[in-house]
Amino acid sequence: MEYRHLGASGLKVPVLSFGAGTFGGQGPLFSAWGDTDAAEARRLIDICLEAGVTLFDTADVYSDGASEEVLGQAIRGRRDQVILSTKTGLPMGDGPYDAGSSRSRLIQACEAALRRLGTDYIDLLQLHAFDSTTPVEEVLSTLDDLVRTGKIRYVGVSNFSGWQLMKSLAAAEKYGYPRYVANQAYYSLIGRDYEWELMPLGLDQGVGAVVWSPLGWGRLTGKLRRGQPLPEVSRLHQTADYGPPVEDALLFRVVDALDAVAKETGRTIPQIAINWLLQRPTVSTVVIGARNEAQLRQNLGAVGWTLTPEQMARLDAASAVTAAYPYWPYRRQAGFARLNPPPV
After folding, report:
1. Active site residues
2. Percent with pLDDT over 90 in the chain
């Protein structure tokens, strides 16, 4: 397993991390993802640790806290072998203090996560969404307190826009608060919006990408085919509306390119899609998920080999779309590109 620094921090993380969204299995979204119990979770974590996957990611909103509880039970007795990452900020209820990143909410959420995970510290705490109702200075000063008391060690964000992240980084620098070193973002061969602004920001500011849904919300498994109905057992029947949209033309153009590379390499479509991400700038780790041992072992096969530059170029071309303004001139016009060359 390869390890990389998480952004500009000193924390080294494996290039593959395990997402515990399938743990617990409560509610309309997460029950469709999976309902892994503690016994099965321990087995999956055994396999991860054997392969060098030491980072495990969850969130308080996953199955209303059940994911954190199952993960905590599964790592019991081996806390020193794992890196724990969790997220908070999305609504956990309908009350006025059940969502957001206010001081009271963050302290309460951190304490609750520590109890569910059965630990006295969290390696990486990420804000699950930007809270426009709370000043960034209040958010960062609270995170600073939590770092100083040893309850969290590193901080990051998820689902922030470029200006929201940059505003936070500027405030952290101004007041000496902890800087966000991780950006957990959606990024895949059928969802490359991350590259327009967040990737250049990450390169400039030392923020590492923690990639979620590398298979495009389950669409790059090799099961979706042009002209064929959605497979009967696909979780997309229940979850498609929750995830990022994608046009069929783009999806099947990418699948065709993945098929061609699969024939050349003898690798599976998911392995190729993940390996492509691992060669992209700013990517520190890619979060993989699995309902069972077979899925996990297949995803672990995405490392230990590398796509060729020619194969990367073909996948780039198949997945390319026109960027939104003001980004498209820098991709399509030489004068703009000369001043701001795209990340490579």
Report:
1. 62
2. 82
CA 255 – CA 263 distance, rounded (Å): 12
Measured over the CA atoms of residue 33, residue 38, residue 43 and residue 45, the dihedral's sign is positive
Closest CA to 15 of 24, 4, 25, 23: 4
- Nearest Cα neighbor of 100 from 58, 128, 124 is 128
The CA distance from 258 to 224, in Å, is 12
What is the domain extent for residue 196?
3-339
**How many domains does the chain contain in total?**
1
Give the pLDDT confidence of 52-62 residue by residue, as tens digits. 999 999 999 99
pLDDT of amino acid 12 = 98
In a domain, 344, yes or no: no
What per-residue string of b and e applies to 48-85 under the rule 16 or more CB within 10 Å gives b? bbebebbbbbbbbbbbebbbbbbbbbbbeeeeeebbbb
Helix axis angle, 198-205 relative to 162-175, nearest 10°?
20
Each residue of 111-157: pLDDT tens digit?
Answer: 999 999 999 999 999 999 999 999 999 999 999 999 999 999 999 99
**For 310-320, b where at least 16 C-beta lie within 10 A, e where not — what string?**
ebbebbeebbe
pTM for this model (two decimals): 0.92
- Where would I find the beta strands (DSSP E) of the chain? 3-5, 12-14, 16-19, 55-57, 83-88, 122-127, 152-158, 180-186, 208-212, 283-288
**What residue type is 68 in one-letter code?**
E
CATH of the domain at 333: 3.20.20.100
What is the band of 237 on the pLDDT scale with cuts at 50, 70, 90?
A: very low
CB atoms under 10 Å from CB of 331, counted, come to: 15
Distance CA 324, CA 178 (A): 32
